[in-house]
Design brief:
The complex is a heterodimer of chains A (113) and B (112). Chain A is mostly beta strands and 113 residues long. Chain A has no helices and eleven strands. In chain A, strand 7 and strand 8 form a beta hairpin. The relative contact order of chain A is 0.34. Chain B is mainly beta and 112 residues long. In chain B, 0% of the residues lie in helices and 52% in strands. In chain B, the strands form two sheets. In chain B, strands 2, 4, 5, 6, 9, 10 and 11 form a seven-stranded mixed sheet that branches. In chain B, strand 5 and strand 6 form a beta hairpin. The chains are: A mainly beta (113), B mainly beta (112). At the A-B interface, strand 5, strand 9 and strand 10 of A face strand 5 and strand 10 of B.
Chain lengths: 113, 112
């Protein structure tokens, strides 16, 4: 079983829809939780970053963490065609004096006009 | 401020050939990493460095070699290319390992 599970999609939604992207994890030692966005043939870029359980909002994006259920989500409101990309969740685990970053496999999202 | 740069963008190798993938960053970050991305596998860590002169293995280090002589540069060497190393390679840097990682544009490698 992978430490981080993410539905690969693809997820196809109409413009304006609310999108929910999810990851589950098994390691209770994970401390920081991130969402990266990756456009086709580009490197990933950090979208959201959070530490504690609860919600964090940034414009149309909301990151949600539930440490008790080992579940994180990214919500996109009023989705736009420009949101079409692959979304990767990532989590950090403290290892000795550094942090190990574990990525999910990514969910491909397509928003059509 | 160019961020993280990688060269080449695309490379075709024959089995057994060696090559070096270049990575440079101008953000004065201590931590640099190399990942490979394969369909259905996500990003997997190959090697990482916590500072000049210090490197360590990641999840999939076999067949790759790294060195870090300066803060700015972190090249990845393929010693004897194999078809299983066909992948997209990303270099990343951060001010602290595991925290906000800045990724380069990637190098697409095809090994025949």
């Amino acid at each position: 079983q992978k430490e981080v599970e993410q539905d690969p999609g693809p997820l196809s939604v109409p413009e304006g829809a609310i999108v929910s992207l999810n990851c589950t994890y098994s390691n209770s030692a994970f401390q920081y939780f991130m969402w990266y966005r990756q456009y086709s043939r580009k490197g990933p870029e950090l979208l959201m970053y959070t530490y504690s359980s609860g919600n964090k909002e940034d414009g149309r994006f909301t990151a949600q963490v539930d440490k008790s259920s080992k579940y994180i989500s990214l919500f996109i409101r009023d989705s736009q065609p420009s949101d079409s990309a692959t979304y990767l969740c990532a989590m950090t685990e403290p290892v000795y004096n550094t942090d190990k970053l574990i990525f999910g496999t990514g969910t491909r999202l397509q928003v059509f006009p | 401020n160019a961020g993280v740069t990688q060269t080449p963008k695309f490379q075709v190798l024959k089995t057994g050939q060696s090559m070096t993938l270049q990575c440079a960053q101008d953000m004065n970050h201590e931590y640099m990493s190399w990942y490979r991305q394969d369909p259905g596998m996500g990003l997997r860590l190959i090697h990482y460095s916590v500072g000049a002169g210090i490197t360590d293995q990641g999840e999939v280090p076999n067949g790759y070699n790294v060195s870090r002589s300066t803060t700015e540069d972190f090249p990845l060497r393929l010693l004897s290319a194999a078809p299983s190393q066909t992948s997209v390679y990303f270099c990343a840097s951060s001010s602290r390992q595991g925290m906000t990682q800045y990724f380069g544009p990637g190098t697409r490698l095809l090994v025949l």
